[in-house]
Amino acid sequence: MSSIDTLCINALRVVGAEMITKAKSGHPGIVLGAAPILHTLFTRHININPEDDKWFNRDRFILSAGHGSALLYEMLHLSGYDLSMEDLKNFRQKGSKTPGHPEYGHVKGVEITTGPLGQGISSSVGMAIAESFLAAKFNKPKYDIVDHYTYVLCGDGDLQEGISMEAASLAGHLNLKKLIVLYDSNDVQLDGDVEQTNTENIKMKFEAMNWNYIKVVDGNNCDSIDNAIKEAKKSNKPTIVEIKTVIGYGAPNSGESSVHGKPMPEDDIKALRKNLSYNGPVLEYPEEVKKFYKENVIDRGNEEESNWNELLADYRSEYNAEYEEFLKFMYNEFKLDDVSDMPKYEVGSEESTRKEMGKYIDYLSTKLPNIIGGSADLSSSTMVKGADGIYGPSNPLGRNIKFGVREHAMAAIINGITLHGGLRGFCAGFFVFSDYLKPAVRLASIMKLPSIFLFSHDTICVGEDGPTHQPVEQLTMFRSMPNTNVIRPADAKEMAEAMLLAFDNNTYPTVVTSSRQGLPNLACTNAEGVKKGAYVVFEPKKAAKVTLISCGSELFITINAAKMLEEEGINCKVVSMPSMFLFDKQSNEYKEEILPKKHLKMAVELGASMPWYKYADEVYGLDEFGASMPIKYIHETYGFTAEAIAARVKELLNK
Ligand SMILES: Cc1ncc(C[n+]2csc(CCOP(=O)(O)OP(=O)(O)O)c2C)c(N)n1
Ligand SMILES: [Mg+2]
Question: What is the pTM of this model?
Answer without folding.
Answer: 0.98
